[in-house]
Amino acid sequence: MLSIPELFSLTKSLTKSEKRYFRMCQNFQEGDKGYMKMYCILETADMYTDALLAQIVAELGESTVEPARKHLARVLSKSLSQFEGEKLIDNQLWNLYQNSNTLYRKGLYPAAMRLILKGEKLAMEHGKHIFYNMLNRKKIEYMMHQQFIDWDESELVLMQEKSRDAISNENAVQQHASLYEILLCRYWKNGTIRSVREQTLLNDLILEEHLTITNNKNTSFESNITHLHFQSVFFLVTGDVEGSLQIFYELDHLYQANPKAWANAPQYYVQFLNGILQTLRRVEKFDEMPFFLERLRSLNSVSEYQDIRVRYHVLEHELHILIAKQQISAIPGFLNSLPAENEKTLALIPYQEKAQWWFTLARAHFDTGHYDKALFYINTILNSSHGQISRLLYVTYRILKLMVHYHLGDHDYLDYEMRSIERKLKKGNQWYRTEKCVISLLRKNLNLKSVSGLIQELIDLKNDPYEQHIITELALIPWFNKWFGHIAPELKTSRPFSVPGSLSANG
Questions:
Q1: Chain mean position to CA 195
Q2: pLDDT tens digit string along 177-233?
Q3: SS3 for 16-54, per residue?
Q4: Lowest mean pLDDT among 39-53, 156-170, 182-196, 420-434
Q5: 219-236 as b/e, with b when 16 or more CB fall inside 10 Å?
Q6: For residue 125, how many other CB atoms are within 10 A of its CB?
Q7: What is the pTM for the complete model shown?
Q8: What's the sign of the alpha-carbon dihedral 469, 436, 478, 396?
Q9: Coil/strand/helix, residue 13
């Protein structure tokens, strides 16, 4: 059963239509409704605080709070399930299954069978193999109770074979989905691979996925989507950005050709759009990003949770574009236009996504010279106990922290921080080229030694698919050009940033 803080979060996630439907359902009940008083208090509050809890106790009475909480959780959950009932295919199929069972128990055998057949047709159209098996088994049960009056043995065997096929197809779907989920877990935990050794660890997944596709005789929208998602993420993880982009465009075509298959559950489509935007910015194809950003903005609202996630995805990509193109003068205006963040908003954003957004905010404040603000976001994430960010994002945060302290002139702390990160990464066998290059650069500069010898190293890093992501996220090339000298022209950003009086190659 939901706690009061969870009820508060659930109340704040409701759309206008869901709120209206819930109130309409409760209007049919008479008498004192303490649970509705609790709902109204939660609905009107902006944030969940101790003062809000005290208000609930004061208005309902201490003895009433617990029964009201339990009843509100029950009726609100039931109302949302009913509201979504005719939208989601799974709910439609479950209702058909239940209604047919009810009619059969009442002796309406032909009517019950009509619902079963309708459900089977719907399940086949949408590749819902589990539901098809449930409905088919229920049909066999009905006929068995009537002593197979309308079937002969061959028809019974055919129905049994269809159930076995449905189970086999569902097993194949689950196997495919499991491989994709493992790949996503590795990507979100570790980021892109940084060495040949890490790439070999992915060979088992690509082989299993190939065997799954080869052995699966049944193709559907769901299986095709899962295969393309797997391929796109695999290419992205292994540094084949062009290969990933090609698959992403195939995914876009498939999604656009089947809008009804995902319109009411667009989480995979949101994931796809964010993936292609991440890939486009990695190869600096910024001119192609507005098209997909508009796709994100135009998604139908299905919940406040999705709306907030989509809004911050769009903002993060837009701010990254300004940073990558070194449009520094446009950043303050963009930051000032951002919506105010509050506890409710941040609670609805997955921690990994919030960490990515705050990194981009820190990067923006770093580029505009507001180093204290950049450090606030960096330290908040690095010192947080709320969740574990991906390994690659963690390293990116640590490097940005080094860059900030360099510009603050905290040389003693910088030396300590460089030794700290070097020890930690070497201990975890994660001491890669970009980290080595940045720390070598800072040490040489602090010791008044020439950094010109690192230019070729940065050129190689920019062209290394294993290092390309972290180089792009940190915008290391523009940073080096601005403060330490100039790299080969072909590696400059589309708008090279040059400041008079910047440090020479000799520091």
A1: 25
A2: 899 889 888 887 777 777 777 778 788 888 888 888 887 767 778 888 888 889 888
A3: HHHHHHHHHHHCCCCCCCHHHHHHHHHHHCCCCCHHHHH
A4: 182-196
A5: ebbbbebbbbbbbbbbbb
A6: 12
A7: 0.71
A8: positive
A9: coil
